[in-house]
């Protein structure tokens, strides 16, 4: 029952200040966030690449309130693309972006986000990589998918994230299961009302499997974003059933979570991409990670008790 509380706390400025000021927080955050600086994220990329993994990088920042912040986030991603190009890591690393970080929630936000994200997608292509549009709460889905359609006219490799807990997602999977489409399927990590999303974990899991069946049977490239052993096993079975080779899909997991499982899948010949967040605006991401799994919250509370 703590999940909804933590998700609500993820958007509370007062709780943000308390958590950020706690001496214990930084060491625990380091488990889930690669660092605050670009060079720290590049170190994580190289380390994971040496272990046979690929990565997707997320410069943390969302729910901005100022167009100037959107420009700063755009510039941070342009610097990231330049670093990937300079280091020759484009074949191992892609970029994940939240359109709220590019101004999507501001007045005129749809056009503003498209205007700000376009040069990032262009820079990614020049670096030999691509961009995946992260999905946020349900109010952003239509805008995000419309921006995806526009970007794919020039950059068809641009990917999207779909969340199985939303009632609409099976239809969205059908729309995005065509040739060339790249879709990361996740369960969902925002507090959503019962009018638009499943609330029971079992229903979310069932929806995930239904969505995964659609994507695996389609002509696109499914990206299985899950740490759930059952979903990983089901994905492997569906890939086999649909005649997919290891190059025809990939698994994705978060930095710092189930690292042994990540390595196991690589050693079995699967493609594994690790989601690496970095940057100073880590609070919202951190709280969602605590909400997703009781083990993450227990880890944090044990650290509080030990260091207290």
How does this structure look, described?
This protein is of the alpha/beta class. The chain has one domain (34-278): TIM Barrel, CATH 3.20.20.220. It contains 13 helices and eight strands. It has helices at residues 2-9, 13-21, 25-32, 38-50, 67-87, 109-126, 141-154, 169-175, 201-217, 229-241, 259-267, 283-292, 294-307, and strands at residues 54-59, 93-97, 131-133, 159-163, 182-186, 221-225, 250-254, 272-278. It starts with a helix and ends with a helix. The mean pLDDT is 88.
Number of domain units: 1
Broad CATH class: Alpha Beta
Number of strands: 8
Gap from first CA to last CA: 25 Å
- Summed up, the helix count is 13
GO biological process, one term: L-proline catabolic process to L-glutamate
Binding site for substrate: 98, 288-289
Pfam families: Pro_dh (PF01619)
Pathway: Amino-acid degradation; L-proline degradation into L-glutamate; L-glutamate from L-proline: step 1/2
